[in-house]
Structure formats: C-alpha cells, structure tokens
Design goal:
This protein has one domain (5-124): Up-down Bundle (Four Helix Bundle (Hemerythrin (Met), subunit A)), CATH 1.20.120.330. By secondary structure, it is mainly α. Helix 1 (5-24) runs antiparallel to helix 6 and helix 2 runs parallel beside helix 3. Helix content is 77%, strand content 0%. The protein has helices at residues 5-24, 28-51, 61-68, 74-91, 96-102, 105-124.
Length: 126
C-alpha cells in the first residue's frame, strides 16, 4: 500500500485513464469499476495526507469521507454515494447480461464525467 499521498493521486489519475480506455472500448461496467477505483485511491491519498495514517482497506467512499470529516458539495456527495453503490454490483456481478444492460453508454459517459469532476475536487482538498 502506498505510503505517499502523491503516489495515491498518481495511481488515481492512471485508473481514470484506464476507465476512459474501457469506455472507448465499450467495456462500460469496467469503466465504472475503474472510475470508482480512481476515486477510492484519491480519497485514500487525501486520508493519508490529512490524518497522517495508512488508510483502511475499504472500498467504501462514503466511509472514507466520513472518517476524514470531509464534506463535498451536495451534487458531488450524491454522485459519490451513487458511485459507491455502483461499485458493489460492478465488483461482484450477479449476472453479466443484466450489468451490461444497466450500464449503457450514456449512463457510463455521465458517470465518467462526474467522476473526473469528483477527482478534481478531491485534489483541491489537499
């Protein structure tokens, strides 16, 4: 696990690029998974920066925000809750076909746009 907040951000940026590649290749729910991973890593970098301790091994974005006492704007907060929920179904899919129908191009395009905005917001919190 990275012990440098900037390394977490570097990996977050790289994961967001991977999300875009997945989207461009019509691998939509994988794009959502990578978007979540990007935000998770950015938050863990912020966690390390602010609390000066190794972040917990969790995928829960809301938990990380709450542990740090960080309050995003209402739209960003709602998006992060939605992304947090999407993470569960993309990480542990019950049925591949349903997942592919649920995460269409237009839905995932919006998720990636908002994910990039959230990533930029997290960077301003450092």
């Amino acid at each position: 696990m990275a012990k440098n907040p900037q390394e977490w951000l570097k990996q977050a940026d790289d994961d967001m690029k991977t999300a875009e590649i997945m989207f461009d290749n019509k691998r939509y729910f994988y794009a959502v998974f990578m978007c979540h991973l990007s935000i998770e890593k950015a938050l863990k970098g912020l966690y390390l920066e602010r609390l000066k301790e190794i972040p917990p091994k969790t995928h829960n974005l809301v938990y990380l925000l709450n542990k740090m006492g960080v309050k995003p704007s209402e739209p960003t907060g709602k998006f992060l809750v939605k992304l947090n929920e999407a993470s569960i179904v993309t990480r542990y899919p019950e049925e591949l076909g349903k997942l592919q129908k649920d995460f269409t191009q237009s839905i995932v395009k919006d998720i990636l746009l908002r994910g990039k905005e959230a990533l930029e917001w997290i960077k301003t919190q450092f």
